[in-house]
Amino acid sequence: MDIGSHDPAPDRTVLSLTMGFLASAAIGAVVRLDIADHIAQQPRTAAELADLTGVDATGLQRTLRFLAGSGIFYEDGGGRFHLTAAAERLLTGAPRSLRDAVVFLTEPMFWQAAGNFGASLQRGSSSLDEIFGVPLWEHLAAHPDVAAIFDAGMVSYSAPQDSAIADTFDGSEFRRIIDVGGGRGGLLSLLLSRNPRATGVLYDRAPVLGAHLLDTPELAGRWTIEAGDFFESVPADGDLYVLKHILHDWNDDECIRILRRCREAMSPGSRLLVAESIAPPPNTPHYVWSLDLMMLAALTGRERTRDEFEQLFDAADLTLVWMRTTASYSSMAIMEIAARDRSAASAEAGR
């Protein structure tokens, strides 16, 4: 290794990553100022945008130029800023908008998690429970204003993934779909709309269910909501159970508990659909690694390889039938899981 090399690329890599927190701060600030919405009306200069938002024109220009250097916004020769494909993801209410996801990911609690990353590294899990005095989910339950931002962010974050899952998975054979920890029901809504003969159950915490997305004319009479704790029980009599981005929130023991509750609810012909990002091979640049560090900093979970998921399934008396990768930004995979034949497993163990 020639550590005396004059190639500046390694220097830029190290320093750009080190100052990456500024990118989060910048994008979070411009989203809260609705800059993309103002530019969508017409291209504008930083001074014009500053007049509309009440901030300093020079500071805003510097911020927008920074973001334009990463492909978010484009500055023309007259100093006017335009939307790019990435900037369109910041529009309020637009299809595939990530605006609410950016807001919740740049909330103070995540800055606190990042600031205490060394403590998370020491213990191997989130330090937020020490900061808040309770785990994150209990903190959200006690602070409805923060929980509302979190839930809206998850809808925004999940929408592109929901579409990718529905495009990849043909669930036409299933008649009763139970979405376990399904949030506001974005994925369940898509699965039901594409399978007109199916009914669905949205199962989650009561505060989340109050803002569900299922009450549409198309789905009238085809859904119910049920509040509960998936660590304790899961509704019975489902043909298809769905766990989308649930397991990555939890450690291995917690995942096995969730999977066992699903296994207990499943009939012999039932299937479980698990949708999770699959960790790529080492040394592969991928968004999943950022998500994995978020899990380390803020929760007890992690991203996993296919083999690691199969170990969880095996521990819960389940078996992987097939896995397919979707065309989502996180390369999310969908895995169809079947309940293992207990009598066959017992016979095999007795040999």
UniProtKB/TrEMBL annotation:
SUPFAM superfamilies (alphabetical): S-adenosyl-L-methionine-dependent methyltransferases, Winged helix' DNA-binding domain
Key words of the record: Methyltransferase, S-adenosyl-L-methionine, Transferase
Top-level taxon of origin: Bacteria
PROSITE patterns in alphabetical order: SAM_OMT_II
Active site, renumbered: H248
UniProt xrefs under Pfam families: Dimerisation (PF08100), Methyltransf_2 (PF00891)
Gene3D superfamilies: Vaccinia Virus protein VP39, Winged helix-like DNA-binding domain superfamily/Winged helix DNA-binding domain
A GO MF term: protein dimerization activity
Record InterPro entries: COMT-like, COMT_C, COMT_dimerisation, SAM-dependent_MTases_sf, WH-like_DNA-bd_sf, WH_DNA-bd_sf
GO biological process, one term: methylation
Domain O-methyltransferase C-terminal: 127-316
UniProt domain O-methyltransferase dimerisation: residue ranges: 16-92
Identification of the protein by name: SAM-dependent methyltransferase
Native source species: Nocardia speluncae
